[in-house]
Amino acid sequence: MTEKNILVTIYAELSAAYGPQHWWPAETPLEVVVGAILTQNVAWKNVAMAIANLKKAGLLGVDRLAAAPLPELGALIRSTRYYNQKAERLKGFIDQLQTKYAGRLDNLFALELGALRQELLGLRGIGKETADSIILYAAHKPVFVVDAYTRRIFSRLGLLPAGAGYDQTQALFAGNLPVDVLLYQEYHALIVRLGNRVCLARQPLCLHCPLASRCPQLPVYEKNPV
DNA sequence: ACCCAGGGCGTTG
DNA sequence: CAACGCCATGGG
Hints:
about 230 residues, mainly alpha, about 0% strand, DNA-binding
């Protein structure tokens, strides 16, 4: 069996076990961008609170965000942990959007994938994962999103070396999956779902995990819920 | 009282 | 480039 088949098969198994994940949980592309920045190193539950606050305050628009005072913005997204940094990064993105793209995400997303990625990576507070999340879930262009779960899980499965970095991990998926936006979107969502539910407390894959039979270590953590 | 979440950046060695 | 420290909330 080839590597390609393994990655496709794992996707099929996760998909069968968990079903459609409905990612990204957002109503507009701007909401995806905001969520992508806010979710850095924070549980999504905390981000959801912040997004709800922004919506309630009517700030979830380019012009409204641009006009919002930094302290007010920070207060609304307080639940996302590094709220001062994130408030600045949010406004930094909006500022660039207004100056270079007439405040329209459409214009920014009209760039070629590679150019768009470089543009996003040039902004403060947007690294590879955040950039790729925006590209995949807001701009709907085919980049595979890599996060900590992806590296941890696929290293343990023996498909990546232990210390694999972002680019190497991304290359594994990019090189062995058909180029398909919806597939990339769903695969990453399923990986996060798996990481959230099963790989608790940095524990390896365990019983009740759809991939348990593939885990070379097979430690048994019975307390872990499905 | 701990532990850790859907990272990124600047500073060291 | 790896290994730090920093940022600084909320739920389990």
